[in-house]
Amino acid sequence: MSTPIIAPSILAADFANIQKEVEMLNDSAADWIHIDIMDGVFVPNISFGLPVMEAINRHAKKPLDVHLMIEKPENYVEAFKNAGAETITVHYEACPHLHRNIQQIKNLGCKAGVAINPHTNIALLEDTIMDIDLVCLMSVNPGFGGQKFIENTYDKVIALKDMIEEAEADTLIEIDGGVNESNAAELIEAGADVLVAGSFVFKSSNPKDTISNLKNV
Predict the structure, then answer these.
(1) Which domains does the chain show, CATH number per domain?
(2) Residue 209: active-site member
(3) Which of 172, 102, 110 is nearest to 137 (CA)?
């Protein structure tokens, strides 16, 4: 079983001490820092925007994995790239011209990710999988942290892994929502490469140990 990439979600951090939280992640076994951007339109919640992203970037020593849960992401991807994003993920459901969105992100020099909601069939990515650097499978309904993991995710991971291997693509599979020590091993076994964990990390008594445990699951 391969060693997963761990991407703690800063959405669950203490925003009153954001520099301290980012520095904790810098000193941890985390590989990436996952940043959830929500607009209150595509999802029923608002998180934060470019000023907070820029503040995180000033202190981060790990790559920033930016997840845009927003409408019309093409209007904002360049600004997020300039704010420090290394990977920019847009939602299939928000992009009627997905291939154009993917190419826009790549042309900016970022890795291009595509997220799909729990109800969205992975088969809809078949025609673009060779162009996608990362597929983010939402294992909860997007918009809020701390939700219960959707069990059907395991089957989607297996099917997506088959699609990627058949296409001989290098696409990574990221799992976002409800990830913890009880399901991490099964997700990696099914074919997941990247685990996003928010509340499970930041609400634990020792976030660094929690990250290490996920890394070594």
Answers:
(1) 5-215 (3.20.20.70)
(2) no
(3) 172
